[in-house]
Amino acid sequence: MNKSSVLVATLVTAFLIASRTILMAQQPAPAAPPPNAADAAPVPYVLSMGDMMNTLVQPRHAKLGLAGHGENWPLAAYALVEIRQVFAGIKKAQPRFRGLPVAELVDAALGQPMNAVEAAIKQQDPKKFAVAYDQLTQGCNACHQAVDHPFVVIKVPDASAFPNQDFRARP
Ligand code: HEC
How far is CA 87 from the centre of its chain? Predict the structure, then answer.
């Protein structure tokens, strides 16, 4: 290699290095690696409609039925207050489900049957309670159909899911 070709080679190399540096500088900085999930700041868990139905509504509906079936009227009265409170909370926590007004749906589906259950408890009438509780249960299903969940079918409990609670009337 003569002197001029060495010079050309050096210049070409210098040019390549310089242009590569400029190109690299123009590229956006690589994104920061995603934070490790374990190091993220904790976020409060927000109950979904399904969570509230599964954890709050379903057991309370069952307990109301079991107490009425056991003719345990003080417990049935208490269970009715509890399930009413649950729905009052759900209306506030989730005003709309997929665009539909939750409070209006709940009142239309459960308002009248809950009043009938209340009347049966006050009269301590097991037959009236059974009819009203069945209406309430059909109200659950009416709303499930209205919100496109017809496959969630609620029924009158045929057994207790709570082995540690006594639903029978106290002597
Ligand atoms: C607003 C109308 C409405 C009423 C009234 C209603 N539900 Fe629901 N329910 C829903 C919706 C909406 C879902 C689906 C929620 C989702 O998928 O996130 C649901 C789902 C459920 C589920 C399935 C949850 C799961 O994870 O398995 C159960 C159980 C349930 N409801 C119980 C009841 C019972 C019992 C009643 C009556 C006391 C009732 N629901 C009344 C709207 C309603």
Answer: 13
Cβ 86 under 6 angstroms from ligand 1: no
Ligand 1 center to residue 49 CA distance, Å? 7
8: CB partners within 8 A, 6+ apart: none
pTM given for the model: 0.83
Q: What is the pLDDT of residues 7-35, one digit of tens each?
A: 556 655 555 555 565 555 566 666 776 77
| Residue 10, ligand 1, Cβ within 6 A | no
Q: And the tokens for 118?
A: 């209340």
Residues with Cβ within 8 Å of 124's Cβ and at least 6 positions away in sequence, in order, are 71, 73
Which ligand 1 atom lies nearest to the CA of residue 62? 35
Question: Could you count the other beta carbons within 10 Å of the beta carbon of residue 105?
Answer: 17
